Amino acid sequence: MSAGGIAVATSIPPLLSRRNAGHAIDAEYQRLCLRSWIECGFRVVSVNHADEIPALAAAYPEVEFVATERNSSAVSGRRTPYVADLLKVLIDAPEPVVGIINSDLVFEPSEAWRAGLPRAVQDAVVTGQRHDATSLLEGTFRKYYWGFDFFFFDIKAARDLLESAMPFAMGLAWWDYWLPAAMSLTGRCVVTLERPTVAHLIHKEPQLDDTWRELAIRFAAFIVQGVATCRGTLPQAVSAVLPLCHQLAQMPELRWRNRGADAAIGQMAMQFIPAITTNVASMPVKSDTPGAASDDIVPANVFRRFEDRLSAGEALERAKRLERDGRSEDARGAFQYAFDRTPHDVDLLSAFGEFQLRCGELSGAADLLRQTIKNEPESRAAYIVLAVALYQSRQHRNAVEVLEAALARWPDLPEAHELMRKLSNQLQDR
């Protein structure tokens, strides 16, 4: 890679588990992510524990692997590398632009990354919020508002961050809050990029456990200490959370470990994100980059019909809010809008089906829930809700068959056992 390129540091996991449109995609997804980075002009460096590297290097020869012996396992039980160690591999990079990115992102293919980032990172850090999907080619896109998955900056910024980077780590909470906060405290602008963007296959999020709590307290303490040494006007995002950070930094450990800080921690996140994302920018992107055949999972195809799929995702979330507000007819219109644009999206099918069930539209609900199971056979909840819809529409035997199918897949599924007992008892009483 020439000195005019972009170097990114990540940590590729030994095993990645992902499902796309109801099917396991796993290592294929990691290869897709890597392909998208390279097509965007990134030189990729992955920081891993030494014993992980031989197998990973054989699987991904296009990646440079760097070994680190320390990791966050003492905090989280997982061998994820510290952000400090990712920064260390970047500070001597010949490229004018460096970055840290999560390993499971598909970058939108565009020359804008190479053309726009060198200028954009001057006195700034460029970040963005991913777009979650259950299907890379057909699903809705829903922006993940509560965190960041990539950052681009210059070498000086990487050096400036090193001192305060511990103990934040890849794959754990709060590193993506610490980094833009740290950048802003050094006087840099935080730019949130709308386009080009990144896609991400939805997966189960980590639980809000003691690791989440401990790192939140560390973030709060970092803010308090950073403000004490800050010269000049405090950044807006730091000012927004400073009172809560003072409260959390002084809280006894026993209290926050017993969930006494959870409400304040959640409020800190709710105040920080809107304040740190006020400076929004876009770089020129072709509206529909030509892709390969329609069924090929390649980076260009992932972003096909992006605006249409994003509007469907926004409509899905709007429909949920409208129903909560008691505006069922408006919710129905939003659900239908999303369905017309992304009729195979699993989350949409499930949510629309459950909505119709609550509205007493049993036949429509059953149809949508059957489609949910067809598109995602591992959706346990869909089996249960479908059985309820069938029973309420007096298709008792069909309801029992659905539960039997669920128990054949998951013999210990408690909801299926409970509902089966209720249905059996009611059928016996008839």
Please describe the structure with a list of short key phrases separated by commas or semicolons.
single chain, Spore Coat Polysaccharide Biosynthesis Protein SpsA, Chain A, four-stranded mixed beta sheet, 19 helices, 14 strands
Question: Could you characterize the architecture of this molecule?
Answer:
This protein folds into 2 domains: about 5-280, Spore Coat Polysaccharide Biosynthesis Protein SpsA, Chain A (Alpha-Beta Complex); about 305-430, Serine Threonine Protein Phosphatase 5, Tetratricopeptide repeat. The longest helix is centred in the middle third of the chain and has 20 residues, at about 210-230. The termini are far apart. About 50% of the residues lie in helices and about 10% in strands. The model has no long low-confidence stretch (mean pLDDT about 90). It has helices at about 25-40, 55-60, 75, 85-90, 110-120, 155-160, 175-185, 210-230, 235-250, 255, 260-275, 300, 305-325, 330-340, 345-360, 360-375, 380-390, 395-410, 415-430; strands at about 5-10, 20, 25, 40-50, 65, 95-100, 105, 125-130, 130-135, 140-145, 150-155, 190-195, 200, 280. The strands form 3 sheets. The protein has an 8-stranded mixed beta sheet, sandwiched between helices. The chain has about 425 residues and is an alpha/beta fold. It has 19 helices and 14 strands.
Low-confidence sequence ranges: none
Given the structure, what is the number of helices? 19
Corresponding CATH architecture of the largest domain: Alpha-Beta Complex
Work out the number of β strands. 14
* Anisotropy-based shape: globular
Query: How far is the first residue's CA from the last residue's CA?
Result: 75 Å
Task: For the largest sheet, list the strands in their spatial order.
Answer: 5-4-1-6-11-8-12-14
Q: How many domains comprise the coordinates?
A: 2
Content-based structural category: alpha/beta
Helical content, roughly? 40-55%
Strand content: 5-15%
